[in-house]
C-alpha cells in the first residue's frame, strides 16, 4: 500500500489536486467508489490517457506473455483485469501483444470505464486503439469485482489480473478481499492463472492467498525494482 500512496505523486495532475487526493487516500477507505470516481475524473483531465498504480504494461509484459502462451486451451485466450481503473494493462495487452488475446477490463467506477471506452473508440478527437493482432479484442464494463456474476461465467478466463485491487479492498477488511479472491478463482479456468501485482510483503500476502485458495498452487515472483520500489507478482494457478 505504500506504493499506492507514493504513485499519487506522479499522476498527471495539478499540484493542488495531488495534495487533495493524497489526503483523501490517507483518510478514506480505498473500497469507496466515490474516491476512485474523483481520482479518475481528475486524472482524465491530464495529457496522459492512462494512469497506473505500481507500474504499467511495459513492466509486466515479460511475465504476462509467457502465461498467455502457456494457456493454450482457448484461442484467443481470455484475460480479465479486475479493478482495471485507467491502467495501461488492458490497452497494452490489446495493442502490443503479438498474439491474439480477448481482454475484458472491469471496474466499479463508471468514470474509469467511460474514460477507457472513449480511449478505445477514439473519442474526444483521439485515434482509436489498434490491436497488436487482428484477432484481438478489448472491452470495458462496469462491474463490482466482488460480484462478477453479471459479466463473467465460471471458468471462462484463462488469465485474471489484479493490480492493486486486493490492496485497495483489503483496506476495508480482509473479508472483502477474500470475496474478491473467491470471485477471481470462480471465473478462472481450472488450468488458468490469477496474478496479483502488489508491493505487499510475501510474509503477509502468501498466507492469505494460501488460506483463500485451497486446491490451487500459490507462488510469488519478485518484480523490479521500478522507480526504486520492489514489487511482487503473486500467482495462483490450477493444474497445468
Automatic annotation (TrEMBL):
Top-rank taxon: Eukaryota
Q: Do you know which PANTHER family this protein is assigned to? A: CITRATE SYNTHASE-LYSINE N-METHYLTRANSFERASE CSKMT, MITOCHONDRIAL, SAM-DEPENDENT METHYLTRANSFERASE SUPERFAMILY PROTEIN
Gene Ontology CC:
mitochondrion
Task of the protein = Protein-lysine methyltransferase that selectively trimethylates citrate synthase (CS) in mitochondria. Seems to conduct trimethylation in a highly distributive manner rather than in a processive manner, and thus introduces a single methyl group per binding event.
GO MF entry, a single one: methyltransferase activity
Keyword Mitochondrion recorded? yes
Which stretches make up the Methyltransferase domain?
A: 79-192
Q: Where in the cell is it found?
A: Mitochondrion
The protein in question is named Citrate synthase-lysine N-methyltransferase CSKMT, mitochondrial
Which Gene Ontology terms describe the biological processes this protein takes part in? Answer: methylation
Q: Which InterPro entries match?
A: Lys/N-term_MeTrsfase_sf (IPR051419), Methyltransf_25 (IPR041698), SAM-dependent_MTases_sf (IPR029063)
Where does it mainly reside?
mitochondrion
**Segment forming the signal sequence:** 1-22
So what does this thing catalyse? N(6),N(6)-dimethyl-L-lysyl-[citrate synthase] + S-adenosyl-L-methionine = N(6),N(6),N(6)-trimethyl-L-lysyl-[citrate synthase] + S-adenosyl-L-homocysteine + H(+); L-lysyl-[citrate synthase] + S-adenosyl-L-methionine = N(6)-methyl-L-lysyl-[citrate synthase] + S-adenosyl-L-homocysteine + H(+); N(6)-methyl-L-lysyl-[citrate synthase] + S-adenosyl-L-methionine = N(6),N(6)-dimethyl-L-lysyl-[citrate synthase] + S-adenosyl-L-homocysteine + H(+)
Q: Which family does it belong to?
A: Belongs to the methyltransferase superfamily.
Q: Which UniProt keywords apply?
A: Acetylation, Methyltransferase, Mitochondrion, S-adenosyl-L-methionine, Signal, Transferase, Transit peptide
